[in-house]
Each structure stands twice: as C-alpha cells, then as structure tokens.
Amino acid sequence: MLKAKQLGDRAVPLFNTFKNAFQVLIWHDNTGLEPGWFLSRVVVRDIQTNKKYYFLCEDWLCLWKGDGVIQKDLYVASEKFTTPSVF
Questions:
Q1: Which residue of 3, 4, 29, 68 is surrounded by the most CB atoms within 10 Å?
Q2: What is the pTM of this model?
C-alpha cells in the first residue's frame, strides 16, 4: 500500500503496486462554500521502498484565481528540486 497526497496532516492510500511515478492528474469538483484551494506539491511515497516522488504545482486549483482551472497534470520533479532545502 502507498501513502500519497496529503491534505494537511492526512495521508490517503492510493493503490497497492507502484513502479515509477512520472505524472499525476489532480482535480476537485468545485463544490462547497469556498472550493478553490492552493496546491504547493504532491508527494507520493512508496512505503515498501521509501522512495518519494515530488510533483510541484505552486498554483491555485480555483476558477477565479491563478490560471482559472480546477484540474492539473503534474509531472515528477527532477532531483535538484527535491532536496531538503526545497521541501
């Protein structure tokens, strides 16, 4: 089982088998009183190997802020952007 995608302090298990992560699609359904939210990054960790994959966003998933979209394709960050000084 993997733990990935944290909202606050909550980790959400995604699936049981994982090889290499290259891309994630993240979205929300735009419901609620204030449905827009800012996404810094997505971290996927394989709990069998402890390998982490970082997907940087640094943008809003919001219809009235940022680029005005609630869905984004994120690609895995290169090693130089995943040092402890960045995260």
A1: 4
A2: 0.70
